[in-house]
Every structure is written in structure tokens, then in C-alpha cells.
UniProtKB/TrEMBL annotation:
Gene that encodes it: manA
Taxonomy of the source species: Bacteria, Bacillati, Actinomycetota, Actinomycetes, Micrococcales
Species this protein is from: Microbacterium tenebrionis
InterPro entries assigned to the protein according to its UniProt record, in alphabetical order: Man6P_Isoase-1 (IPR001250), Mannose-6-P_Isomerase (IPR016305), Pmannose_isomerase-type1_CS (IPR018050), PMI_typeI_cat (IPR046457), RmlC-like_jellyroll (IPR014710), RmlC_Cupin_sf (IPR011051)
Protein name: mannose-6-phosphate isomerase
Annotated keywords: Isomerase, Metal-binding, Zinc
A Pfam family this chain is assigned to: PMI_typeI_cat
Amino acid sequence: MLLRLSNEPRDYAWGSSTLIAELEGREPTGAPEAEVWFGDHPGDPADVDGGSTLDTVTGGSLPYLLKLLAAADPLSIQVHPTIEQARDGWAREAHLAADDPQRNYRDDNHKPELIVALSDRFEALGGLRPVEDTLRLVAALGSSAGPDALRERLTAADDPLGSTIAWLLSGSAQTEVDDIIDAVDAASSAEFAAELEAVRAIAARNPGDPGVVVALLMNLIVLRRGEGIFLRAGLLHAYVSGLGVEIMAASDNVLRGGLTPKHIDVPELLSVLDTTPGIVPVLRPSADGAVTAYPVDVDDFALRRVEITGDAVELDVTGPTMVLVTGGEVTVAGSDGDAVDVPVGQAVFASADKTVLVLAGTGEAFVAEPGATRR
């Protein structure tokens, strides 16, 4: 079967009031519109055209959650657990109510995720910058109590990034945090001009937040339309601004490390965080052909971007599949001839018995399905 899906945007405070409306070609509501969920996650299952929700069709069995994400302000700095960490944390917190704000684990699943930019520019923070590079950035902040203390922490012999983050989030470093933020505001650096500009903008929206200084330790990633990044378990990250298609394992487990009024459990964050520094690779669209795959090293999901330019594109699919339309006029059909016109900003769900889908019209769509070992 083919079922058309839609959902109401979630009004998280960091959401854009214009990006999703512009994509869909409608007037903005004036409220923030942060995410549109296409999945069967109990937190917000997608609406099925004609009534009911997708979870009543699937029984909540989808291994992935597909979203539109639109950020006007930075999301919280966060990290997601491995599946073993999630199962352990879920068991430890079994005594807490499901909606307890002190709860770290909302389910027993991991949450690796992939985001692909739809806007011409999408900014994110991802992973921790090599210490020697960050020390050059800190040098641009000059010498005062905050930058000097930060420099000293970063030159510690044992896990300098982990110990620095623990110190920043401890609650005992606020004087130094404020001084570092002041120094960032006054700093200049040809090498790190973009990073300083981004952190200044984050500080303006989050005055006095220790997460601002944590952001100073992270890689700034700028995606162009069609480019993506994969965020594995343990990798510190935050989306900063822009519109994208996001797919993840079906989970809501988030450990936060700043830029949020929500619960931050520093010891639990540090137990999940991978403090190994390094660059997050950018996944770029194919130079030719209608279909771009974004390979990821998990079995929960797979994602392809399809450009339809007049000739129909036939795709082999395996397992329950979603096609999210992000531009133009697209019709999705099965090999048996049933077809659904899909408006921009909506999706179609194809049950597992559909092994071939045909995308026709002119436009762009993203095809989500289980990863290879889940099919």
C-alpha cells in the first residue's frame, strides 16, 4: 500500500518561523516551526491521509524516524548514546516517570543521525577540534583570567577535552566562562574568523551559557544544499541554523551539554561523550545521475536523494519505505500501478511488499528505508 503522510510542525523555541513555510509555499504562521516528524515514533506519529496515524499501520515497528528540521537559533549541544549505553541508562531510570524532567533516557535505543541540507547554507557544530588547533584559536582571545584558565585546561596531560568540558559545565567556572565570552566578542583572527563569528552569534542568543565556550571547542561545519553529515553515537554536535532533511534511528535519547534550559547531567554526558578530536566528513551529492546515496555505518536507516527532471526514476526498495518530497511536483507509484501525488513537505509511506517505486514528475525527493541488515 501507499499512504500519504503529513504532520504538524513542532514549535520548539529554536525553530524557524519561515523556512518550512517557504519550502511548502505557504504563508508563515508567525510561530516557530522546528521539526516535522514522518514516522511512527510514539512522541508524534505521522498523520495518514484520510485519518489515523502511521503507528496504527506499522505497530510502531519502523527502525527510523524521518524529519524536516528548520533552525533559526542553535539547538542544544548534545550527544547520543550507543545502544548498549541506552539500554543500561533506560534500565537505571526505570523508576522515573516517562515525563520526569530529570530523565536522561526516553527509550532503550541508540540515536545515530544523518542530516542533509535543503537550504543554501546550513551551519552545524560537530565533533571536537584537535587541541593544537583550538589552542591557536584561544591565543586570539588574548591573556586574561578566562582564556588563561582555558589554555591551562587544554594543555593538561590526561583527556584535556573531557576535563575541560567537565570544568566548564561544573558550575564552578562561571567567572571564567563570562571572561572567555567577553574575550571572544573582542577577538579577531584571520584563521578562525568564521568560528569566532559563529560563537559570537551563539553567545548573543545564550548569554552567560557555559555551552558557548564548549562550542568554541567544536568544529564549525557549513553545508551547502545537498551536502550532509553523519553523527554517530558519542559525537558532540549542535545544529546552528538552516533547513534540512534529518533521518535517525527511532529514538529520543539526548544528553545535553549546553545552550539549553533543559536538564544537563554532566557525569552522564561525560560517560557517553567520545572526546577523541577529529573532523566530521561532509557527504557530498553525486556529480552525475539522478540518485545520490548517503552511506552510513548503521543498520537502522538508509537515505537517498533523487532528482526527477522529466524522466521517471525507478528505484528498487526493500522494507517499509518513505518518500519525502522537497521540491517540484512528484508522483510516487508502485509497480502494480497505484500512485500518489505528494505535495512538497509531505511524504508517502510504502509498505514492505512494495519492492519497486517509480518517481515521476519534476522535482526532488528523499527516499528513506531500513539499513541493509534491517531489510
